[in-house]
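Appendix B, example 12.
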Amino acid sequence: MTTVSPRPTPAAGSTAEPAAPPPAMRLRELVFGAACAAAVRAAARLGVADALGEEPATAEELAAELNTEPQPLRRLLRALSCYGVFAETPDGSFSHTQMSRMLREDDPGSLRYIALWCTEPWTWDAWPRLDEAVRSGGNVFQELYGKGFFEYLHQDAHESAHVFNRAMTTSSVQSALEVAELLDLTGVGVVADIGGGQGHVLASLLEKHPGLRGTLLDLPDVVAKADPRLLTGGSLAERVRIVPGDCREDIPVEADLYIIKNILEWDDESTRRTLQNIVAAARPGARVVVIENLVDDTPSMKFTTSMDLLLLLNVGGAKHTRASMVERITRAGLVISEIRPVNAYLHAFESVVPG
């Protein structure tokens, strides 16, 4: 006869952490990682976090508000609670956690659109072909869809393009103020945001420094939708020059400080051309600040190494290590003076154009 020992109960007031799962269980959890990502996506699309208020609610109460079936919703919430996205109370209700609040549309640190972007339909087509990308060293998008990634996004996947724009805006808005706090602009009269998207970093710098002027350079379709503060009639428009263009081809901009944030993720040739175009355009002594995620930054490595693999799949690009970023910057002819963290995910490489 087999006897089963009861699971030991922690002593009252115990703060002992639960034991880590054994390797076999951990590997099982990892190979079901798609279920976790899909669950976060489902919660974001259903608006579960928006429906849940400050007080715990039952799955039945939430289902009535969301027009879903209660039992499948309970199963979804139970799965997410295992990862700290929502929490299940002793009576079977569900409450918010720090992570679940970030799935709300109105949360100041909302990651809703970033969660949707990282789980868009094309990602589920691309991830199973990661072995092909590792063998070839190139993206799998052309073979999958018959065209390049951004061409596909804007021609065939309009909803995904909208999600991408919202995700990039979220990311830029949240980091723009941190970049503005980090940078010392003593002696800087003109700043250029190269490949700056909608110009959130530039707008934050101009608002903090009333005497500053700025230039935003990005693709024509991107700058046409720039931050309203920078466009005609906006509060900062008189101090801004907007230049449609591709920084990989030419940078017809002269400034005291050039900022390049989260764009040196293409193939090496595109990165080389962009940095050399800045050196060609800048006068001696001009500052160049490159801001990037790093794959060897310990606190964020699970995130950045995953993004690194996604870049391999969709555009054949890569995230950088500290050493590889230094190598590319110095190879372009820039002299690095300092490397500083912006936040938990970003580092700023300060450099100068030599005389």
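The two ends are 85 Å apart (CA to CA). The CA atoms of residues 229 and 340 lie 29 Å apart.
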